[in-house]
Amino acid sequence: MTFSRARRWAPLVVLPLLAMALYLAARRLDLARVLVELRSVRAGWLVLAVVAYAMVLPLWALQWRLIAPRVPNNRFREMLATVAMSASLHNTTLAFVGEGSAVLLLATRIGLDRTSAVSVLAMDQMIVGIAKVALLSTAAAMVTLPTWMARGAETLAVVLGIVIALALVVLRNRERLHARLPERAGAMMTKAALAVQPLRSPHITLSVLLLALAKNGMEIVALLCVQHAFGVQVPLASAVLALAALNLATIIP
After folding, report:
1. Torsion of CA 153, 154, 157, 159, to 10 degrees
2. What dihedral angle (degrees, nearest 10) is formed by the CA atoms of 108, 92, 126, 137?
3. Whole-angstrom Cα distance, residue 180 to residue 137?
């Protein structure tokens, strides 16, 4: 299938899945109770929370633009649409549906080959993992973490360190590994190594990491806004701890 044809068909696959996810989510809500509760909240704070959450998407799009190969369709507008659709599916469907849709959209909308699309997703998760560790460390510095969170943070840091070390080994020894692997596996490994080349640039790596941290910052702002909307007065540390717990709980996908 050519890129132009695949791009036309992608919305026909993604949008029905998104509509089904929203329908299933709505069925679980007591809409009457939701309307009653919403009458007592301060709407201005909720608007600010939505704006803060919405800011995550352009930051995410900039992040992917930096780590994706420089193809003609790697433009901010296209990447923002890709991120918005994949994030919607990621947050409303079963595990790995969001990741699979991200690979599909990177291939169809941006024009990446499958190996490069998977590599972009892998780099994103590595950088996000570092940001999660930084957030958990910040939470630990502000409050005493529950035992399960402290152990989870330590495990995440160790696993992330191993993954990054393996990625660097593959990058430095890709030609030697290519010669020893079967032809098809070697070609895929070479493509993947070339796709993650941006992480060898300290400038790009730092920029992507700062964007990932900025996304966490926007989520903390949104949590604080929601708390104020419902009249809940809690310190900043509580919002940081809540986001850290959420990040740790969603680490498996």
Report:
1. -110
2. 160
3. 41
